[in-house]
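Fill in residues.
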């Protein structure tokens, strides 16, 4: 594509060189630059792309988009100055990859908890309806049935547009995408046109990046503020921030709730470790999910599918067939007669939801033993809160390591223990080795008990000192169960 054509989507301050050159690729990472490439220098949170302009040119970049023009320029390279390259990169990528969201319906899911479940279930549901569908999620990206591994909840804008472009080229009618607060703040979704947005809930998370809860809320709200009039904005009326999210949106607002009058109303009629019987808008449906938080997630899926034009009856049939997402309230029955649940809960609120769901089913007929940790180099303020929530709703708690990253596991454990009283400590032990912590919890369990293993869910690694080692909570549990026979 001609550089001049790509630049039509952004405001150019000034340029030097030939705008009529052919661009073969677009990159933000100088290490990926090849001859004929357009390199966009972005001031990131870790590094400033402007420092790598020289390296990009050495790699064969034909053009540079930047905020500050280099003092020394190369006559063979075209330089384009913009006021905000972070804002420009998404728009440039969207244009370069043929405006993919004009060719498919993109629905974004945002909130603290439930994003992966809702996006994945919508993806699976619409594939059952016979469409080609794309998915962009924390667990994995999919172009219809083809899995594409992922590192971030929302990829960088170039990867994102390349992915959406491939989805459009392969005939996808819909794409469902988790939209993280980071991606909104860093303008990774700039240039994309959304057919709908879904809000799940808002509780403390990512304050290591956003610094304040208000900034975190603003990042989520900005997504809805940017939705077009043609889109829908589906929000959780049970969350105190649900209506705040959509107060300035131009999109058509719809609500879902388990507690109040709304467009998509749900009620849990029966629940067990095998599933629930739900009432959704006065129709009953059996689902293979557990817990009120999952009932809320399913309401969001139901509402979004109806807003996308599906008939309520066909949506309910699809809901009854769908299964939980890997690592999200994943229940496994022990030969000894207790239940282990592997869940991704890594915030105080997510822990509260999962533990509430367990108690709703147990009804006091067994003990709850929780294995929990907290990630290193992340929001330290939630560590004592995670420990407190675990102790409040568990009979025994094993505090252990999660992904320590570059911190010492014991330091993280000590931060968690600092939130507990002497009374709390009577039901707590700490074991830094996660495998041993899970094994200990299982040894403590009696028939009828529940062992909750929280924090990592679908992850199949443990990150220590910057190195990812293979570690899968579910695999560990199955190994323990195999030796119980």
């Amino acid at each position: 594509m001609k550089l001049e054509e790509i630049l039509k989507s952004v405001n150019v301050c000034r340029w030097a060189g030939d705008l009529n050159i052919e661009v073969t690729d677009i990159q933000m990472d100088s290490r990926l630059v090849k001859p004929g490439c357009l390199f966009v220098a972005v001031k990131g949170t870790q590094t400033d792309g402007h420092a790598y302009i020289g390296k990009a040119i050495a790699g064969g970049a034909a053009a540079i988009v930047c905020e500050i023009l280099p003092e020394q320029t190369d006559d063979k390279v075209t330089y384009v100055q913009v006021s905000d390259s972070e804002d420009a990169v998404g728009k440039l990528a969207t244009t370069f990859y043929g405006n993919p969201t004009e060719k498919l319906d993109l629905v974004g899911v945002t909130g603290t908890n439930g994003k992966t479940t809702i996006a994945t279930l919508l993806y699976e549901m619409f594939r059952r309806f016979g469409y080609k569908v794309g998915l962009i999620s924390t667990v994995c990206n999919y172009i219809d049935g083809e899995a594409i591994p992922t590192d971030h909840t929302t990829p960088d804008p170039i990867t994102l547009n390349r992915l959406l472009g491939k989805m459009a080229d392969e005939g996808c009618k819909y794409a469902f995408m988790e939209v993280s607060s980071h991606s909104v703040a860093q303008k990774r979704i700039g240039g994309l046109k959304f057919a709908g947005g879904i809000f799940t809930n808002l509780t403390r998370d990512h304050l290591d990046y956003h610094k304040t809860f208000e900034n975190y809320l603003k990042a989520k709200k900005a997504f809805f503020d940017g939705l077009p009039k043609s889109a829908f904005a589906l929000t959780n009326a049970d969350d105190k921030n649900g209506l705040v999210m959509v107060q300035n949106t131009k999109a058509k607002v719809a609500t879902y709730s388990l507690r109040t009058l709304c467009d998509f109303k749900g009620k849990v009629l029966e629940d067990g470790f095998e599933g629930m019987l739900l009432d959704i808008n006065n129709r009953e449906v059996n689902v293979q999910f557990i817990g009120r938080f999952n009932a809320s997630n399913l309401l969001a899926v139901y509402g979004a599918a109806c807003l996308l034009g599906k008939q309520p009856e066909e949506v309910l049939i699809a809901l009854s067939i769908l299964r939980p997402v890997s690592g999200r309230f994943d229940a496994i029955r022990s030969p000894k007669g207790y239940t282990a649940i592997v869940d991704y809960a890594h915030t105080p609120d997510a822990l509260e939801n999962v533990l509430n769901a367990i108690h709703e089913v147990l009804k006091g007929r067994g003990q709850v033993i929780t294995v929990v940790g907290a990630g290193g180099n992340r929001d330290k303020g939630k560590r004592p809160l995670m420990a407190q929530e675990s102790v409040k709703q568990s009979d025994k708690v094993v505090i252990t390591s999660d992904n320590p990253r570059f911190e010492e596991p014991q330091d993280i454990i000590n931060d968690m223990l600092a939130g507990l009283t002497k009374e709390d400590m009577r039901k707590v032990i700490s074991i830094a080795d996660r495998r041993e912590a899970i094994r200990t919890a299982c040894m403590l369990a009696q028939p009828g008990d529940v062992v909750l293993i929280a924090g990592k869910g679908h992850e199949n690694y443990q990150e220590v000192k910057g190195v990812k080692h293979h570690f899968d909570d579910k695999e560990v549990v199955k190994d323990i169960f195999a030796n119980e026979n």
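DSSP finds 17 helices and 24 strands in the chain.
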